[in-house]
Design brief:
255 residues; alpha/beta; six-stranded mixed beta sheet; 30% helix
C-alpha cells in the first residue's frame, strides 16, 4: 500500500511541475504562408523572435516564408542522358552548372554548398536539359524550383528540380543555371535588373548582397527538432492517473 501511495505522490508532483512548465514557456506565433496564429507551448524553447528576424531582415524575395534546406552540402545530379539527343549539348553545359554552383558557394562563403553525385536516387537536386521551353509565345531559358514541406515553423525544401536549355552564348548558360539553382534555394524573382534572380537574363547579372544576407539569416538557425505538447490533459477516474497529450515536431529534422 505504501508503495502505491508513494507512486501516486510522485505522479502528482510530476503532473504539477509539467503543467507549471507549460504555463511559463513563451507562446509562439507560426510564421508561414496560410497558417493561422496559434498559441502552443514550445517544448524546445526556440524563441519566435529568431524567426521574426528572418522576415524583417530578408532583402531578397522568397517563394515561401522561412524556406530552407535542413542540411548542406546539397547533392546535385547532372542528368547527362537528358541532353544527349540535343544538337547543341556539350560538356560545356555541364561545366556551366558546376560554375553556377561555385558562384553560390563563393558568394555565400559556403553557407550554401553543393556536391555532385552520380545517381538521381541519392540527390537533392536534379538538373535536366530540354529541347525547348515556351510560355505565352516567349522562349524560356530554364525552369527550376523546390518541393516544399510546411513544418509550421519552416517551409522545408526536400527536393529541387532544374530544367535548362542549351545556349549558344556561354555566359547565358552560367547565368541561367545560377538563376535556376537560386529558385531551388527558395528565391523568387527580383525587381533589380542586375540581380541574378531577375526574370530576364543578361550576362552582367550577379548574386547580390540581398541573396547573401537572406541566406545568412535563414541558415544561422541550427537544424533541430522543435517538439510541442498539444492538448495535454489529466484525469483520475479511479486509482490511476491518466495523462493524455500529443507531440508535434515543427522543426527541420526528425526527433
Amino acid at each position: 500500500m505504501a508503495k502505491w501511495l508513494l507512486l501516486l505522490i510522485f505522479v502528482l508532483i510530476f503532473l504539477y511541475l509539467f503543467l507549471e512548465l507549460l504555463k511559463n514557456i513563451p507562446q509562439l506565433e507560426w510564421l508561414c504562408i496560410g497558417c493561422e496564429n496559434v498559441s502552443e507551448a514550445n517544448f524546445e524553447n526556440f524563441t519566435s523572435s529568431e524567426l521574426k528576424n528572418i522576415e524583417s531582415s530578408t532583402l531578397a524575395p522568397l517563394l515561401y516564408a522561412n524556406i530552407r534546406w535542413n542540411h548542406m552540402p546539397l547533392k546535385v545530379y547532372l542528368n547527362v542522358s537528358s541532353g544527349l539527343d540535343l544538337p547543341q549539348f556539350t560538356l560545356s553545359n555541364l561545366e556551366s552548372v558546376r560554375e553556377a554552383m561555385q558562384k553560390w558557394e563563393n558568394s555565400t562563403n559556403k553557407i550554401v554548398s553543393f556536391v555532385e553525385v552520380t545517381n538521381a536516387e541519392e540527390s537533392d537536386i536534379v538538373v535536366n536539359w530540354v529541347k525547348t521551353f515556351e510560355m505565352g509565345g516567349r522562349k524560356i531559358l530554364g525552369e527550376g524550383g523546390p518541393v516544399v514541406r510546411d513544418t509550421g515553423l519552416f517551409n522545408l525544401t526536400v527536393r529541387g528540380e532544374v530544367y535548362l536549355l542549351t545556349q549558344k552564348v556561354k555566359c547565358l548558360d552560367v547565368v541561367t543555371a545560377t538563376h535556376e539553382l537560386g529558385h531551388t534555394l527558395g528565391f523568387d524573382h527580383s525587381n533589380n535588373p542586375e540581380d541574378i534572380m531577375y526574370p530576364t537574363a543578361s550576362c552582367s547579372q550577379r548574386i547580390t548582397e540581398a541573396e547573401v544576407r537572406t541566406l545568412s539569416e535563414l541558415y544561422k538557425i541550427e537544424p533541430k527538432p522543435e517538439l510541442y505538447f498539444l492538448n495535454a490533459s489529466a484525469s483520475k477516474p479511479g486509482k490511476y492517473l491518466n495523462l493524455e497529450f500529443a507531440v508535434k515536431n515543427s522543426g527541420l529534422i526528425d526527433s
